[in-house]
Amino acid sequence: MLSRTADNLYWLSRYVERAEYLARIIEATQRLTALPLAYVGETNEWEGAIATAGCAAAFAEHHKEATESAVIDFLAFSRDNPSSIRSCLEQARSNARAVRTALTMEMWDSINGMWLELRRYGDGATSREELARFLRWVQESSLRYDGSAYRTMLRNDAYWFSRVGVYVERADNTARILDVKYHVLLPDNERVGGPLDYFQWSAILRSVSALTSYHWVYRDNLKPWLIADLLIMREEMPRSLASCYEAIVRNLDAIGNAYGRVGPAQRKARSIRTGLQNSKIDAVFQRGLHEFIGGFIRDNNQLNNAINQQFLS
Amino acid sequence: MRLHISHNTTYRYDTPPATVTQILRLTPRNHDGQHVVRWRVELSEDCILHEHEDAYGNLTHTFTADGPLNELVITVSGEVDTQDTHGIVRNAVERFPPQFFLRETDLTKPDAAIRDLAAELRDAGDPATLPLLHRLLARLHRDIVFDVAPTSPTTTASEAFALKRGVCQDIAHIFLSASRLLGIPARYIGGHLARSDDALQQEAGHAWIEAHVPDLGWVSFDPANGISATDAYVRVAVGLDYLGASPVRGSRIGGAGEALKVAVAVAQSRQQIQD
Amino acid sequence: MATAFDEMNIGSGGVRLPYDQLFRWLNEQPQDALDYRRREAELIFRRIGITFAVYGEAEAQERLIPFDVIPRILAAAEWQKIERGLTQRVKALNMLISDIYGAREILRAGVIPDDMVFRNPAFRPEMNGQKVPHGLYVPIAGIDLVRVDADTFYVLEDNARTPSGVSYMLENREIMLRLFPELFARHRVTPVENYPDVLLETLTSIAPHTTAGEPTVVLLTPGVYNSAYYEHSFLADKLGIELVEGRDLFVRNEVVYMRTTTGPRRVDVIYRRIDDDFLDPLAFRPDSALGVPGLMSAYQAGNVTLANAVGTGIADDKAIYSYMPAVMQFYLGEEPLLKNVPTWRCREDDHLVYVLDHLDELVVKEVHGSGGYGMLVGPTASKIAIEQFRAKLKAAPDNFIAQPTLALSTCPTCIEGGIAPRHVDLRPYVLTGRRGTRIVPGGLTRVALKEGSLVVNSSQGGGTKDTWVLDN
Fold first, then answer.
1. Cβ contacts of residue B221 below 8 Å, gap of 6+?
2. ipTM value
């Protein structure tokens, strides 16, 4: 398979996944800021949203203040932001175009349909309702793309590369939420334990669509270390780091079996996964949650580079 | 005379490229006015140099060097015995009939100003080819000021003519453009010149042209110096224009911030073997 | 201009034999039934256009060249004549190119003037003295034919560089099979769907001698922004080969490789749909970002086959075209089975005088242009346009040739509210490999949809038809 084709498939998946994640961030932040101040405190949640999206520097170049409208526009519709939902979907389609014959018709239809629909939104949403529709539409489109890939693609290297893209992006996204919000998960806050933290915690879970899962897994009230445990260690939780790495290792191994060769990318992925499996959440807190997450984001990036070197260039 | 030539081309990269592929036209061949005694092309990188002959009969070397490379140096050294043939080039490698060299190229496409120049020179005296070429030579030598500042390898003949400034390559292009307009086949020559001012170190190779004169054949003209080539000239590569005779054409994957430095030294040998 | 020959009707209600069944069928159809199928065809095309649309919207629309549902039919005997003529023609084209870049015998014999070759931009000095694998320069040719009467097909133009349009030939047939199964039941139509197989076989057969094992064939495209990208991806898909861009390939030690997920893989044959000028920035345009640096050195070392070869444009130049009858006589000692359109070369004084005297009757074409730009169609041009062209022609007669305005044959065509004759041409695709020449019976029929128009180019209101060659 051409390296360029694999590269396009990998990034196509990453862009769609990222668009969905951005939609979730905006939604969760909106919920949080809709609450009376007494429940959430005086922090600027929109600043947090920008940080969680990983584009604080780019935002600062274009805006002085992180107001709701500026942030929503920047994350959802801006052409200045290479990681806005619009930019992601446009990139996704241009990648899809370049590898049209490697996609199934259903995948192409979903990407192309997404792109055509995107143009209806022109320069942004005119009302809160429209924005809400837009954000839901983005999440549904991502599901449709993901589902069509899962249900229609031949199980060969094209499929595996596109899956690896999904999970590398997803792991990065989950890690970023934890990175920005780690302070509300620290044990000190348990004693505070007021409604302020409760809503912060539920917002985190919501942004990775894990609020219901939490209750099923722990049958307990929201506890910060359990939230961290869920998002980091639990393989049964689809957006957890452990789950992403289970999938990354599985798909990279499939590629390794097909090619009859295992390289730095597979070794790196296995090592990250083993690290997650062998950690305990208590130990993570002891060593420092922030440091742990920072280390993970670096590792995940290194895996991306290893994949790029081994297969995509 | 015997000329010693050393010609070093150094590329430096701020961001090292992954690979560099180049084609070199750095090796002279023999004709009645020059005999190559010794010649070497060496690379700072360890890779295979493939030797070929191009369409014009120039000797080429191609290679691919693997990076990451911070620097790439091409070292050429050699000795050539030369004779003054009054500018007439005989027994050179010829691959095309003279009229092939009437073809226009992007770099030598004439504009109205060059057309006017050609028309004016045609009407200015003896219409025979040789006197016409001498008028063109004298005019360009007089009117075009040698200046390295305003032009680049992609400057066209008409651009340089409008500036009335340029390096030997630009003046050669103007000459080619006008000569072909006048129906005289003409070609670009890249090579070396032992300068009369004894300046050993030069920052580039030299360039001149050859025009086809009935009964004489190919005759060289160096519009930058206003003369025909002498035994101080070493002819290395021929082409329709600079691109065809380019000493180095290359491309790289990755890398950025390329800086090029050329150092040429042409010296007359102390041990004269000519009489 | 004489009345055009109609391929179906012979006047007073009579019908030519190949069209017998079609004629009856057309009469059985209520008018709206045909209209309905026509709309259906458009819908299918639009869907393919959209699902395959690798283009932006504007481009996707551009791609929807009108399709006419009434097929153009050739009898087996007619096709056999065409096939022999094409085979002969392509053989001569190959010999011409090989000679021009080799021994130059045709120039020495004075059949073609030297300057027509050496001063021609289509002559590639880089190919001078260069051997190509198996001596084959034009594995894929598209020869444009026009018909003027029951027995005469003229060659209008040779396309020896990168002839396009074959995807329409294949899609048109596909759509006809879907829409009119009953019509196919009444005819024995020779299939075209094996074209991709024949093409792949042709390309595989001309792999360089240095190939070890099964050769790797790729299709090189300029990329998604090229107007023919759809065809490139369509063909790569049908051939089961990689569709590569310049950046997917690299050259090391004069061997071409593609970058794959399992590491570099050697490439032996490149079906390139990218012009000579852009192939290799080290040999041609230095600013080309579409090409592969060093490709020409691999080619010259004999380690890769380019299909078609570099420099084949010299054979399909309009000025060289006029010499083709003499070229065929020179190499083959044969009269052309398919005639040239009579052509005046304005570079020759007596021809120029004739042309200037008859500008209102002639079609005057530029020799180095293509695509109907620097062109004068005398009979339909205004007086002012003719006078403007006269000045252009006088200033640079070498750049022009002139031909009579041909009465191109017509075929029944669906138009608003009925069926009417419209002018057509035909581009068959001629494939030549190591084991000889093969032509999938048929080709692309282009039709001028405007009444009386002779211009079949899709950019100027032309459409396409399925072309049927009947099996006896």
1. B87, B133, B136, B137, B175, B208, B209, B210, B211, B227, B228
2. 0.90
